[in-house]
Fold this sequence. Notes:
By secondary structure, this protein is α/β, with parallel strands linked by helices. The protein has 2 domains: 2-163 and 166-232, Cobalamin-binding domain (Rossmann fold); 341-507 and 557-599, no CATH class. The chain has 20 helices and 19 strands. The protein has helices at 2-9, 45-48, 52-62, 77-85, 115-124, 169-182, 188-195, 277-280, 289-303, 321-332, 351-360, 374-379, 386-398, 417-436, 470-483, 496-506, 513-521, 535-544, 549-553, 574-584, and strands spanning 35-41, 67-73, 104-108, 140-144, 160-162, 201-202, 207-211, 217-222, 231-232, 260-263, 265-266, 285-286, 307-311, 338-340, 365-370, 403-410, 446-453, 489-493, 568-569. Helix 5 (115-124) crosses helix 17, helix 9 packs parallel to helix 10 (321-332) and helix 14 (417-436) packs parallel to helix 15 (470-483). The longest helix has 20 residues, at 417-436.
Amino acid sequence: MQKDISMILRSVSKPGRYTGGEFGQVVKDKNKVDLRIAFCFPDTYEIGMSNLGVRLLYGALNGMDEVWCERVYAPWPDMEEQMRKNSIPLFTLESKDSVKDFDIIAFSLQYELCYTTAVNMIDLAGLKLFASERSDEDPVIIAGGPCAYNAEPVADFFDIFSIGEGEEALPELASLYLEMKKNGTYTKKAFLREASHLKGFYVPSLYDVEYNDDGTIKSFEPKYEDVPKKVEKRIIADLNTSYYPKKPIIPFIEVVHDRIMLETFRGCIRGCRFCQAGVVFRPVREKSAEVLNEQAKEIYKNTGYNEISLSSLSISDYSCLHEATDMLLEWTNDAKINLSLPSLRADSFTKELMDKISSIRSSGLTFAPEAGTQRLRDAINKNLYEEDLMNAVRLAFEGGKSQVKLYFMNGLPTETYEDIEGIAVLAKHVVDEYYKMPERPKRPVGVTVSVSCFVPKPHTPFQWEPQDSLESLSEKQKFLGTKITDRKIRYNWHDARVSRLEAVFAKGDRRLSKAIAYAQKIGVRFDAWDEYFDYDRWMDIFDKCGIDPSFYANRRMSYDEILPWDVIDTGVTKSFLISESKKAYENKTTPNCKEKCSACGASKLGGDVRWCPKKK
């Protein structure tokens, strides 16, 4: 196949997406391994190579002597056209072997709008789309990532879903596969049954789903007594000793995040009621500053990158942040390495932190108030006050910054037009704060207001909420535009049609699989890309498949109905989520995890918060 691939690369854009051979890739003798895994990312090379989770799992699996894990990214439409024209099936970057010949095919599902692309990759591999139609001779196809927390819209396409963190779980699944192959007990059916006994693995074919006449779920039950009623997610208890890629692959072409990514901690102490990540990554677990510093040195030695990004859901909540940055700055300044601190919170932004940022970063700063009024910020449990934001931007301006980006959402539960107007008012207050300062940067101030549409997500207090209608979201976007009159404020908004499709898949069930399969058949893929997203086409697909998208996106679910994702146990109890949902309508807040434990239930999963020893 190597010769055929080389020939078609001359006629496609960015051929570096498909060549492999990068420094840091893992190459093994395929005749000396017993299990081959093709790790697929259903988006372009540039996006997939930037994903830290893929790097973690690629390295963890290749750490097993009997396993060779290789990478696969979705071919861009021009490459797909050439592959189909020349009968070239989907192949891996390392060996260029056909994905169909591997033992296990693994997908990382990071966002709902990658579903058609993932299913298209299965088709490009020359395999049947539906798991029920594939034979024992075909690879086992698994999936994981954030979307696995509601796997139902794509449950019919995959054999297994990995729920939670996979650095230990996937090697455990690989060991089960190897053991059954060696002792002669392997059949796909037997393997799936055994896999369901491992913590953190959901096998959808082992569950029966029935529906009521009104379309809601009547029952969701395992077919056999030995199959768990609920699948509990996996977590890594100790991040200090867990696997971390110290020799990452260096891409041949520019990728989205082409830098050293240091994961500081997992989880979030905050509990924003719209945020899925804040729930599914609980409990909070931290790395020590010493471990971070040593990992950074090792990766720099192996890559030569000139930027380090400290990664987390909220970096200013990392209890060892000042110790870690001090250690890093001791050697990064001399090496001329830029240190970036994304995901800052305004209420934990300090002068000490600003002084450090001023020495290591020249760009503006970003904060996420999420809502324009205090009432709505309380309803969503943001626990952020306007005073916090003004203190933060004042520190930023004093530190020489003149550009500030503010993230908001519209369509939030309980939202009014007064709350929408509050976004414009808050942005104007930031501009005014700049001009209150007697000594301010000479550059003109700029405030960017970026507004996305609320999408109700599974496993959150807002999972029962309906999404605003498309018309309502569009009206609110236009209304806000009329209220922003200061030329120093730039207004960006997200396409409400994209958010509506995302909501359909986020809250969907197995009946959506026929729409996804039909969409793939007629050429739908790369829905997350503006140039390929076609809302009207999707509405036509739903109509042809007899699916009402408003049933999923715009219907308020009742607290007592069975939800498609109830089979997944994140550790956080449904009673806690219901309590948080009700508190939103009372504009009541819940303290963060550092202030007080609210008994969400996640502590049962184990793992301890590794607060910095110097803080004790």
